[in-house]
Amino acid sequence: MIFFIIWLLLVGYAVFLAPGGEADPVLSNIFSGNFGEIDPLVFAVFNSLGLFPMVFLTLLLLNDRQKWPAWPFALLSFVVGAFSLLLYFAFGDRKAERRLRTPGWLVRFLSSRFWLILLMVSWAANSLTLLQGFSLTAYREAFFESGLVSVMTVDWFVLWGLSVYAVHRFYPEARLKIFAWIPIIGPVIVLFINKKRLTL
User: Fold this and answer.
1) Is 200 inside any structural domain?
2) What pLDDT sits at residue 176?
3) How many domains does the chain have?
4) Residue 18 backbone dihedrals phi, psi, to 5 degrees
5) Residue 21: is its pLDDT beyond 70?
6) Would 56 be classed as within a structural domain?
7) Is residue 199 part of a domain?
8) Which of 195 and 120 is assigned the larger pLDDT?
9) What pLDDT is stored for residue 99 in this prediction?
10) pLDDT at position 22, please?
């Protein structure tokens, strides 16, 4: 029920409370390719909303034994982020006595060192954006001027919380789960450290 309540709050915020008018300055810069006009922190958070779904795709497909199939929600998260994942955890994540839905070849790929390292490298590459210098003041201004920045920021924090929950939900016996609290890369590190111990 808590996930559904969070979903309702997230939808309510996006529809009724998020700031910004008809002309979203950040969205306009993205569509026009003026990335230099976007604060590096805003750009890094925007890009991370493409990395989070990759992490959830890995976590959910490696544990797709629940009442509802996880893959539609994992794929949809690339478009709507936490809006789809919250519904899955609210209603679909119910224990069911069934075999893993994910094909064996895909399980091997998603649990491979190659894929996990690729996720880490992608996170590191996105983090390098911040070396250009960023301004918390500029981010705060963008938050109150841009509906995109406002909603994606809230979405980012929800995805972060869900990723920590997913690690503890699916891998209760994993070592060093404290790393799961590191945004985006943390769950990947937990999988990498426990690769030989976890039954994937």
Assistant:
1) no
2) 93
3) 1
4) -60, 135
5) no
6) yes
7) no
8) 120
9) 86
10) 67
Q: List pLDDT tens digits, range 132-170.
A: 888 899 999 999 989 999 999 999 999 999 999 999 999
Q: How far apart are CA 124 and CA 193, in angstroms?
A: 18
> What DSSP string runs through 115-147?
HHHHHHHHHHHHHGGGGG---HHHHHHHHHH-H
Q: For the stretch 53-79, what's the b/e string if a residue is b when 16 or more beta carbons lie within 10 angstroms of its beta carbon?
A: bbbbbbbbbbbbbbeebbeebbebbee
Residue with tokens 């789809």: 84
Cα–Cα distance list, 40 to 18, 45, 79, 173 (Å)? 21, 9, 22, 38
Total residues found in the chain within this entry: 200
Tokens of 159: 């995805």
- Euclidean distance between CA atoms 154 and 51, whole angstroms: 16
Q: What's the rounded Cα separation, in Å, for the pair 90 and 87?
A: 5
Is 198 within a domain?
no
The residue range of the domain holding 18 is: 2-193
